């Protein structure tokens, strides 16, 4: 967040892959080797991130998926992946065979319906690359593909030869994601890469679209296939809630570093962008994805606008003065909900700082103070659990705290409006209302320069910085329900979707739910 000055920009829709050389030749998970963790809030420059201060703030790892977990209606094709002779086995090999087998079956059904012509299966193979593989992997414009090339890209699709390669080493990013969050993360990556094969078949890669649009579409295709897997429509594998959540995490883990201009040639997209496109595919299906190149989702740049923003990583100081995060954010929220959106019965809320739940006496606390912030409705106070908030700030960035404050103000708005919603529905509306507030602090880029797209109430001068909504997503992953049937505050997919509704469609779309 940035007080009283222009900040950088946030993002909204598409998955990350960069085109290298001819777009028909290679579409890859990474255009360059970047040591980057989007859970980090404080970054020294626009290109390189760091290490999370407190590993406990990472989203809780999901159980690793090792094999298909439901009866198959069709056998797994043992030739779906070329593992090479003598490959060291991985616990997710059978799972990936099941994924690739079903993706081919799915596209053989979907492609003719969407594009009006028969589907052509991959002419080449899906190759597992690892150090010491004794046989060669075909090259993409070169005689062969080396393991170092694959490690650089993580995974890529090559139109010359119509094949796909992924990093199958023990210490690569994909293995790390599988260990930490489940092999559904790799399934999402492979579904994305197969999306590029569809683009070759449909002629999209011949039409010189900006890279961000082809990546957006491939993420959407990945989400559409994931919905099939989660809904029991696959022939070989069924995704659990943990696998869907792992797909969301995968979107954030290989996104552009904060500060990168996603509209530049080879732009990837922020985590917020990627998750958005994935969710559109999941909820609306592959036919909607096919329209994205000519009817794109909303996108906002991800670059910094000043050296100060770049130096601080877009993070305001943690403190309570006028230029500090917990000074200007409550002021902005009060101005938005009390003036810009006239909630007549809502009095300005006060911020109260405590050292933990034991320090607070409130009979009608709304929210979980142990997660960082909550509303004491009877006293008109938003209560900050300072140790927890500071840990979030240090590990994820300033908008982890901003997101939680937004939820507390959203709860106060629902209280003032006499909202009949309870439980999960009420919590998800708070996410939407938080997104509606965020929409009014987003800068956009036009021919006239970078500015806010609409007038605001006098005194509102705060803006959202590059990466802030990625920080919000990381916070969602910490505070959400683990399964869709928990129905307490909403699972990560539901909460991110609600937040995005507010960010993209505005507060009116949220209030229409009452």
How is the secondary structure organized here?
Elements: E1 18-20, E2 26-28, H1 93-115, E3 126-129, E4 137-138, E5 144-145, H2 147-153, E6 155-158, E7 163-167, H3 173-181, H4 184-202, H5 211-230, H6 241-253, H7 271-284, H8 286-291, H9 307-312, H10 325-340, E8 350-354, E9 365-366, E10 373-376, E11 381-385, H11 386-396, H12 398-417, H13 423-439, E12 444-446, E13 449-451, H14 468-479, H15 492-505, H16 507-511
Parallel strand pairs: 3-7, 8-11
Antiparallel strand pairs: 1-2, 2-6, 4-5, 6-7, 9-10, 10-11, 12-13
Considering the chains and any ligands shown, give keywords for the structure:
single chain; 514 residues; alpha+beta; 5-stranded mixed sheet; 4-stranded mixed sheet; 16 helices; 13 strands
